[in-house]
Structure formats: structure tokens, C-alpha cells
Specification:
alpha/beta, 9 helices, binds fe (ii) ion
């Protein structure tokens, strides 16, 4: 990192009130997983952080900066985001969308490691705004591509013995809106990428879960999954993963931590940097991110909080209140949120440590 960039980061944290010179408190939340037998191969650590939903309200930008400061202390080889980088551009006008991307990319420069980005539903500009036409600059995936200097919303790379495949799980529907699935072109690309790994272990990352029990956890075992909470092509993806050597699937979107192993593939939903959209922990799951320590074909996963305290409701200013109202209006769109969280997290959950 250049000296001027480092200065600008520290100045931002200082003016934001986080106190960059101080040690930021954080802890490993009591969720930890060691998976797969160890084999020979280089060891390395990565960071998986998801659902930042960066925004100026509710101290969201400061929270992201604080999380990055904490992640940098992990001495990881690189970071992978899980999507929902900005909050939010599905419905935002162009000015707001550009401002949010300015904010996110400014903070990206704070990382001391490469940070690879995954597409989330809130990162596709204009899909739910009838006033924004597909001809608008930056429409859909274009703003993500332009701001991140990418030519495709999905990509892959190798590190050590592992191949990492970053997917775009947000399929824009004709006439507006989106559904969680891959298009045919991306599915064919994924098949060729997995084949080209030639038996080496693969970690896939995408925003919308292939496997989640989020709805059932909240509403009971007979509740139907929400239309946008799980990949529509989950069965095809799962079978493809099992037929190749995918060992680990990193998921976002649901803002909780959960882990499933099915036919030798581990599926992990990695909480959220923003918790419940910067209003506190979500359903007992605190604001945080994960580290994954790869060792041969195995790995260990840990979820870390980073010392974030959500603003108390009584301290909300008018912009915070507007953001809060907008968030709850979004519920019909998300169809994923069960209850209004209280700032600082649900009462009586002493196991949540921040
Ligand atoms: Fe999200």
C-alpha cells in the first residue's frame, strides 16, 4: 500500500471516529469448522466477507472501514467478497448509485491484500427502478464491471492447489427484476472451469445460497423457501459440484452463518459485515467475516466479529431514519427478513459477543 493511501485510510478512520491508531476489538464468534482430511500442499489463509451493503447512513461506511482494518490483521493471501457490496442500486437513481460505488471502491483501496469481488443482487443497477432504462449508463451489471475494471461478472483463478470460481448468481429477468440462477453461458463456463481443474480442489463463491435452511429456521420446517433465497438451479449446481472436485461453497445473501455438508461438499453462508443492514446482529448472528485456512485439500473456517457497535435507535438522525424506513419497505422485495432487530442485537443472546 502506498504511503498516501495509508494516510488517507487513517485520516478517514480518524475523521469517522473509529480511531485507527487504537487496537480494534474483535473476537472469534463461537462458530468454527474444520473439514476434510489434510493432504500435502501449501497452507494459506483467505478472508471471506459478505453483504457489506455500504452506505453513508447508520455509519455503514465507517463499519466497512473498521472491518477492513480488522481483516488486514489476519495476514491473509487475499479476500473474497460475497456480494451485496453497496446498498443499494436495484432501485437507486443514478446519482445515488454512483455515490455508493465511489464509497465502496474508495474503501477497497484500504485492503492490504487483493480483494476479489462477487456480484450480489443489490449490485445490479436499475433492475427494480422503472425510471431507469436498460440504455442508462451503468445499467444492470455494467456499473459493477466499470467500477471494478472487470470484463465479466464471473471469473476464476488458482492459488496453491486450489481453484477459486467466483459466480454471478443474479439473473436479470426480461422486463425488470431478477432471479437467482446462472444463465446457460455461465453454466457452460463453470463446467469447463471445473473440468480444467483436473481433480484439484475447488472453492466456489456466489451470493445466493445453493443450500440454506434460513426460511425453515425462522418459520418452521414446512415453510416454503422464498423465491429469491435459494438458487433455482441448486440441484444442477449441486450435482455438478459433486461430479467434480468442489470441496467448499461460500455463500452470502442470508446474513447468517450456517454450514451444511452434503455428499462431501461443504456449503457455508458467511454471516454479514453489516449484520442486519447496519442495525445490529441479525437473528443472533453478529456483524463479522470469516477466515479460511487451507491446508492441502482441507480447510478450517472461523467467523470473526470485529468490534462493531450499531448505532442506537435513539441516536438515529433524519438520514438514518430514512434509511431504516427504506430498509423495511424493501422487505416485500427481500422476503427474507423475519423481525425488526433492535440496535445492539436481540435481547438475551449472551452468546453474541461484539
Ligand atoms: Fe445482503
Amino acid at each position: 500500500m502506498s504511503k498516501s493511501t495509508e494516510q488517507s485510510r487513517r485520516e478517514f478512520l480518524k475523521t469517522a471516529g473509529a480511531g485507527a491508531a487504537t487496537v480494534i476489538a474483535g473476537t472469534i464468534w463461537p462458530v468454527s469448522l474444520a473439514a476434510a482430511p489434510k493432504q500435502d500442499g501449501p497452507r494459506f489463509r483467505i478472508v471471506h466477507y459478505t453483504d457489506v451493503h455500504v452506505q453513508p447512513e447508520l455509519n455503514g461506511e465507517r463499519g466497512f472501514a473498521q472491518a477492513i482494518e480488522h481483516m488486514n490483521g489476519q495476514k491473509a493471501a487475499f479476500a473474497i467478497s460475497g456480494g451485496d457490496l453497496v446498498f443499494e442500486t436495484l432501485k437507486a437513481n443514478a446519482g445515488r448509485a454512483r455515490r455508493l460505488w465511489d464509497m465502496y471502491t474508495a474503501r477497497l483501496r484500504d485492503f492490504d491484500m487483493p480483494a476479489y469481488q462477487v456480484m450480489g443482487n443489490h449490485d445490479k443497477f436499475g433492475l427494480l427502478n422503472k425510471d431507469i432504462k436498460p440504455s442508462e449508463p451503468g445499467y444492470g451489471e455494467k456499473m459493477f464491471l466499470e467500477r471494478l475494471g472487470r470484463s465479466s461478472t464471473y471469473t476464476s483463478f488458482d492459488h496453491g492447489r486450489w481453484r477459486f470460481v467466483l459466480l454471478d448468481s443474479i439473473f436479470p429477468e426480461k422486463g425488470g427484476g431478477w432471479n437467482p440462477k446462472l444463465d446457460e453461458k455461465q453454466m457452460a463456463w463453470l463446467e469447463s472451469e471445473l473440468k480444467a481443474a483436473e481433480g484439484r480442489p475447488v472453492c466456489a463463491a456466489l451470493h445466493v445460497p445453493v443450500i440454506t435452511s434460513f426460511t425453515q429456521m425462522l418459520e418452521g420446517p414446512l415453510a416454503a423457501p422464498r423465491p429469491q433465497s435459494t438458487m433455482h438451479d441448486a440441484k444442477e449446481l449441486r450435482e455438478l459440484f459433486e461430479a467434480s472436485n468442489v470441496k467448499l461453497v461460500l455463500q452470502g445473501h442470508v446474513h447468517i452463518s450456517e454450514h451444511y455438508e452434503y455428499n462431501g461438499v461443504h456449503y457455508i453462508s458467511g454471516g454479514a459485515v453489516s449484520g442486519a443492514w447496519w442495525e445490529g446482529p441479525r437473528n443472533g448472528h453478529p456483524e463479522g467475516y470469516a477466515t479460511i485456512d487451507f491446508d492441502g485439500d482441507g480447510f478450517t473456517w472461523n467467523y470473526h466479529t470485529y468490534g462493531w457497535k450499531a448505532k442506537k435507535r435513539t441516536a438515529y438522525d433524519s438520514r438514518d431514519r430514512a434509511a431504516h424506513a427504506s430498509l423495511w419497505n424493501e422487505r416485500a422485495v427481500f422476503a427474507l427478513i423475519d423481525e425488526t432487530p433492535s440496535a445492539g442485537g436481540p435481547a438475551g443472546r449472551s452468546s453474541v459477543q461484539i
